TrEMBL record:
Family: Belongs to the zinc-containing alcohol dehydrogenase family.
Domain Alcohol dehydrogenase-like N-terminal residue range list: 71-133
Species per Swiss-Prot/TrEMBL record: Immersiella caudata
Molecular function GO labels: oxidoreductase activity, acting on NAD(P)H
Name used for this protein in its record: Chaperonin 10-like protein
Length: 440
């Protein structure tokens, strides 16, 4: 039996409950089902990794205070495994997304609930969970520590068949994929295990509840007649990333046709053989212009949606492959038609715009006529409880039914102190096509 950290066995048994002539074996010799389960005890201090300055490694601190639960919807989770993300080394190396110093990083983890929320919740004490921490300004929620505070509506119960290591691999990528598809593209997931229709949900929320910097993306970025539906094509540039992995899985569940632009020499066979992320068209990214020509030649004006996971340069290439102003009828799109009306003019219900979503960057300048640029409103997940709860409850069902599978684990490092070594491996490009996990 796995015991809470810092807790020792006790072999004392009351003589009033067991006759004195019965030999009592030591607790560690008992079978799991016979052992006396001890209560979870949270220490006052813990080990954390602190970043003291940009372009420095994280420092292991052994006596840092355990974060305190404050709100009725907060839980305390004992960290068991951490999923490493590129932002964890890029932020200190390039000095961005660090609101204060010293700083605790880490965006996703799995663990055990050691303090349940005061409010009515899906979560109970000792639940195995994955925590998705998109609120990087609240250090209590950062993953690089032994105990983490999380909102219950940002926490997902792990299916019994998933390990802690598997649970730590997919949280942030799932949220980014679901918001990109559901908000920026308007995909309705309600037919998939009663998933959310985010496009409709956020329009039922008072607009003042949405942060000003994401309000337009949430409410005005795509018209209702342009929403992506089953049969539409989606191109994902950078298909080897974890965010691409989850995007493709969710897009396929929604009935979209997918094409992936990826380094086929490294990832072609893996993507072709993997049932969950196998796409309808696989294009080599080695020659970007050739990739654009292949897409345009094959889809002949039917590609309206693109998601880039790499950066500004690849996003610019993907922009060339999109076909703004195509018609809702594939045959009509191939026959040619007059230029589309600008977005500000009354729309023709048969004419549809193109949409480019950048997860890590967008092309310079304004979007060309007939095309809209999108940035994923990630803070919706932790700032709007209705959105966070809808996504987490849905992910629980998807994982339980096996409709979403965790990304491949490339390797597992041991101990919180190994995070720096793991991030160095990511800097060197040694981790590709899956996740590097740290077992705490």
């Amino acid at each position: 039996m796995s015991l809470p950290k810092g807790k020792k066995h006790s072999s004392k048994v009351s003589a009033t409950t067991i006759p004195s002539d019965i030999a009592i074996p030591p607790l560690e010799d008992l079978k799991v089902q016979d052992a006396v389960e001890e209560p979870l005890i949270t220490p006052e201090t813990q080990r954390v990794l602190l970043l003291h300055a940009a372009r420095q490694p994280y420092e292991l601190i052994r006596d840092y205070p355990v974060p305190q639960v404050q709100g009725d919807h907060e839980v305390l989770v004992r960290t068991e495994a951490i999923g490493l993300n590129p932002i964890d080394w890029k932020a200190p190396d390039f000095n961005f997304a660090i609101p204060s110093l010293p700083y605790i990083s880490g965006r996703e983890l799995s663990g055990l609930v050691v303090q349940s929320p005061k409010a009515t919740s899906r979560l109970q004490l000792k639940d195995r969970v994955l925590v998705i921490s998109t609120d990087y300004r609240d250090l209590r929620k950062a993953a690089y520590q032994e105990y983490v505070v999380a909102f219950d509506y940002n926490t997902v119960r792990l299916a019994a068949h998933l390990s802690f290591e598997e649970g730590s691999t997919l949280g942030v990528a799932f949220v980014a994929a679901a918001l990109a598809l559901g908000v920026c593209m308007g995909v309705d997931f309600s037919s998939i295990l009663d998933g959310p229709d985010l496009y409709t949900l956020i329009r039922q929320i008072p607009s003042e509840s949405l942060a000003p910097d994401i309000r337009d993306e949430c409410l005005a970025s795509i018209a209702s007649h342009e929403r992506a539906t089953s049969g539409d094509w989606l191109a994902v540039w950078g298909g080897s990333s974890t965010s691409a992995n989850l995007t493709i899985q969710l897009a396929k569940l929604a009935g979209l046709k997918t094409l992936t632009i990826v380094d086929k020499a490294k990832h072609g066979l893996r993507l072709t053989d993997h049932h969950a992320i196998r796409t309808d068209l696989l294009v080599d990214s080695h020659d970007p212009q050739r990739a654009v020509d292949i897409i345009r030649g094959n889809l002949k004006g039917k590609l309206r949606f693109g998601i880039d996971t790499r950066g500004r340069e690849s996003a610019s290439s993907l922009l060339q492959a999109l076909a703004p102003g195509n018609l809702s009828s594939p045959s009509a799109a191939q026959e040619g038609s007059p230029p589309p009306s600008p977005p500000s003019t009354p729309h023709d219900s048969t004419r549809l715009g193109a949409h480019l979503i950048g997860l890590t960057g967008l092309p310079k300048g304004s979007a060309p006529e007939g095309t809209l640029f999108h940035a994923v409103p990630i803070k919706l997940f932790h700032e709007v409880p209705e959105v966070g709860e809808a996504l987490c409850a849905w992910l629980e069902r998807l994982l339980e039914k096996g409709l979403v599978v965790p990304p491949e684990i490339i390797d597992v490092e041991q101990g919180l102190e190994s995070v720096n070594r793991g991030l160095d491996r990511m800097r060197k490009g040694e981790i590709s096509g899956g996740k590097l996990v740290v077992k705490v």
